[in-house]
Every structure is written in structure tokens, then in C-alpha cells.
Amino acid sequence: MKTILSKFKPAPFIMLITIASLLFVSGCARYARNVNTLFDPSTTVSGGSGELYILIPENRKTHSEDVKWVLGKVKDDDNKDIDEISSPRSPAEIIQTAFVMEFRRAGYTVIPATKAPAAAQRVIDLTKTDIELEQITDLANLTVKCRVLAGVDLYKNGQQIKRLQYESTATRTDIKDRDMLAINVLEDALKSLMREAVPELHTTFK
């Protein structure tokens, strides 16, 4: 009787394990590289009327589809930068859009622009806008943090009447919908800022 000995070849086995591990890690380490938002108004302000200009600087507008605005970083669990988070719209445009939608819902005729006519009755000039997003990814979870800041100058009948600044933050940790988590946290922070700012600005203009 012959005894047949088969030699164990470790190389293919190790390669198989390595590929499987890489697929597992890449599948569990998904995160958003590009962020945009379709903002849904969240305040209950009403009773607005007349025209309202909401301004951002010309150099904060996107003039080409090739332009990407960096909103933050992606870090691993050792706090090392591994990627960037970008958006097709600038922080100023994202915040301006949120204000536009809130005040339209409140009843104003809102005109987004970079410059208002001298005779404009009401103007919100977004003099400072900033969005900071951070994603921290590991095998178990994804944590997203967002900070939104808006500095505004208010004008009524051509005269500056107030200068205000608003800031909000939001954080979430989850394992599901990792590619959507950054968008959801950005919207949380935007809505928090709107709930503070819009009622006060509306009252000032009444």
C-alpha cells in the first residue's frame, strides 16, 4: 500500500486570508468623501413679508463644476489623517441656502445674492461662514463631528442695525449608513443653528 503525502502550500492560503481581510476592512471602513445636503427647513417662524436679501461674498460662490471645497478631514482611530471631505458647494453657499429656505418658509420673498441694491429694505449679510467636518473611522464605528458658524450683519433701509454670530455643533456615532452619516450630522448642525438664528433675525426685522 502506498501512502500519499500532500505538501501543504501556505502561500495561496495566506494570500486568500489577506484578500478576505482587506475586503472586510474596506467594507467596514466606508465613509463619505463628498458631502452635499438638500436642506429641509426646521423652524416654525411665520408672518414674514416683503423682500429679504441674503448675501455671501462673490469669492465664496462656486463658478465651476471642477471646484471642490474641502470641509474637513477623515482620521483613523490613531488620529492620523487619511482622507479629506469635500463638497461641490462652499460653506457660504450651504449656509446661505439654509437661511434662504427658512425665510421663504416664514413668508419672505428671499433673494440670494452677492450684493444688494442700495434701497433694499432688509439685508442679511453673511460676513463669516465656516463648516468643519471630522470623521473618525475604525472597524467598529464611524464618529462624525460637525461645527457650523455664521457671522451676520443686518441692514434695514440701508442702515446697519446689528452684528451677530451663531455657532452650533453636532456629533453622531454609528455603524450603519456610514456614507450618509456626515450629511446627516451636517444637517443636524445646520438645523440647530437655524433654530437659534432665524427667530431672532425675524424678530429684529419686524
Topology:
Layout: H1 10-28, E1 51-55, E2 69-76, E3 81-87, H2 91-105, E4 109-113, E5 122-137, E6 142-156, E7 159-174, H3 178-205
Helix pairs in contact: 2-3
Provide the CATH architecture.
Answer: 2-Layer Sandwich
* Class computed from helices, strands and strand pairing: alpha/beta
Largest sheet properties = 7 strands, mixed
Helix percent reads 25-40%
Distance between the termini: 102 Å
User: How many helices?
Assistant: 3
If you consult CATH, what is the topology?
Double Stranded RNA Binding Domain
Task: Name the beta content range.
Answer: 25-35%
The outline comes out as elongated
Radius of gyration: 24 Å
Average pLDDT works out at 86
The H-and-E topology, N to C, reads as HEEEHEEEEH
What are the low-pLDDT stretches, counting only 5+ consecutive residues below 50? 1-8, 12-29
Q: What number of structural domains do the residues give?
A: 1
Total number of strands: 7
Within CATH, the superfamily carries the name Lipoprotein like domain
Could you walk me through the main structural features you see in this protein, from its secondary elements to its overall organization?
The protein is an alpha/beta fold and 206 residues long. The chain has a single domain (32-205), classed as Lipoprotein like domain (Double Stranded RNA Binding Domain, 2-Layer Sandwich). 30% of the residues lie in helices and 35% in strands. It is built from three helices and seven strands, in the order H-E-E-E-H-E-E-E-E-H. The protein has helices spanning 10-28, 91-105, 178-205, and strands at residues 51-55, 69-76, 81-87, 109-113, 122-137, 142-156, 159-174. Strands 1, 2, 3, 4, 5, 6 and 7 form a seven-stranded mixed beta sheet that branches. Helix 2 packs across helix 3. The longest helix is centred in the last third of the chain and has 28 residues, at 178-205. Mean pLDDT is 86; it is low at 1-8 and 12-29.
